[in-house]
Structures are given as structure tokens and as C-alpha cells.
Hints:
This protein is an alpha+beta fold. It has helices at about 1-40, 45-105, 115-125, 205-210, 250-260, and strands at about 105, 115, 125-135, 140-145, 165-170, 180-185, 215, 225-235, 275-280, 290-300.
Amino acid sequence: MDRKENKGAGSEAQIQEQNKRRNHRIKKARKAEAERKKNRQPSVRPEQKSEKKKQKRTAFNVVSGTVLIVAVCVFVFALYQLVMMLIPYYSGGREYDDIKDIAVTADEDGSGFSVDFDALLKENRDTVAWIRFDEPAIISYPVVKSADNVEYLTKTFSANDNKLGAIFMDMRNTSDFSDRNTIIYGHHLNVGGEMFSQLLEYESESFCKEHPDFYIYTPDGKVRTYTVFSAGVVKDTAENYTMEFASDEEYEAYLQTCRESSNYEVDVELNAQSKIVTLSTCTNVRDDERFIVQGVLTAED
């Protein structure tokens, strides 16, 4: 009897162990299934995938199209701004070329240069002279004079509104170049090199030595040769712009000041009887600075 009871008890323990193991396996399986469900991606039908791809492509096309349109608009606007900036230089340059065709006669090498002042005065009664350099040869323009020093800053010789303006004499000077210091103004342009832009070549001493002279032609038929004796940057209120002198001594002191303001020394005679021309343009660096070239009259024909 005891043996049977022991046998029954052992069988019951085995059953319990088996149930325990089975329950453990079931729990483990359920846990694994739960993990699989958690990590499983939702199933997407093929047509849904295709629709999503289409949506992505559409969104990309809209963005890239918008960027392209903006880029084209920016380019067109920049091109418009550039054209509007260049048109005055082109039209002004053509205008002065036409004036030269009407009024100037010269051989191919530049010799035999003459000016038809009747044609110039017919075009503009403010004409007082013509200025010319051997080099820079582009400086070859009519000179005008008005009742102020503002009008020809933005008006060409032919009275057109243009940023090139005109080459003009100071309103305070007499028109026949009889003053001790005659001042002539012209623009320094960032594009094209017209007007007095290339006056800055005279920053170089070697350039001055190669091309020391410039010429003033006047309606009375005279040709005046001026030899450069000073070139450099000065303030717009510099003493170089002085036009009236109380005495010969004051004028000679002024001439010495002009020499000292130059980038280099030039061996040319200056005295109380000298008549000079001061050519003035902007530096385009500082608003209160000017680049000036000063020449003394050395010949008159």
C-alpha cells in the first residue's frame, strides 16, 4: 500500500512538472508573438505604395519648380538691373562719338587735329573749349560752362539727362582761360572709362613722363599746351582749388603747395606769371576725396 501511494505521488509530481513546463512554453510563445506584433510593420497594399510615391514625386516637383521659378525671376531682375545700369554709359558714349564726328577733324595718327566750334556752338551755346590728351586718348571732349556747377553733373553736352554728364568749367572762371587757375570737372565712371575716368593714369610717374602734355582748343582759334606738374589725391576742400590770389607771393606759395600735393616731382618752371589748369574728378573711394591733375601753360599757338 505504501509502495502504491509513493508511485501515485510520483506520477502526480511528474504531471505537475509537465504542466509547469507547458505553461512556461505557452507564456514564452505568447511573449514572442507579442514582440513580433509590436515590431511588425503594417501591411501596405501595392496600390497604396504607388500612391505614396506619386505624392512624394508631386511634392518634390512643386518644390523644385518653385525654386526654379524664383531663380529665373532673380536672374531676370538682375539682368534688367545690369541693362538699366549700362544703357546710360552706352547711349552717352554714342552721343559723344557723334559729337566728335560732327566737330573734330584729325588724321589717323591724331595729327592735324582741329575743332569746328561753329558746329559745337550750334549744338550748345555753353561751349567754351575742347580738351584733348594724346594719352589717355579717350579724353577728347567739348568743355562747357553754365551758371552753376551742378547742371552738367547729370546733363550731357547735348542736354540729355545722363550719368556721364559733361566736362565743364567752374562757373567762377572766365571762359577764355585767362585766370591764374582755371578748374575743369569731369566724372570718374565705374564702367566704360569715359569722361575723366582715365585721368587716374597720372597716378603713375612713368605715365606722366611718357605723356606730359594735354591741349585746350578755344573758339578764338588758339591751341594751348599744358604740361602736367602735379597729380594726386586731395580733399575736396584742398587749397589746390583756390582761384583768387591777393599777391604774386601768395600765388607762388600756392603753386608750391600744389607741387607738394603731387605723387611725384615734375621738372617744369612755375612762377607768378604761370597760368594753370586744374582737372578734377572723383576717386570713387571716399566722397570727400578728389583726384586732380594740374598743368601749367607752356605753349600757345
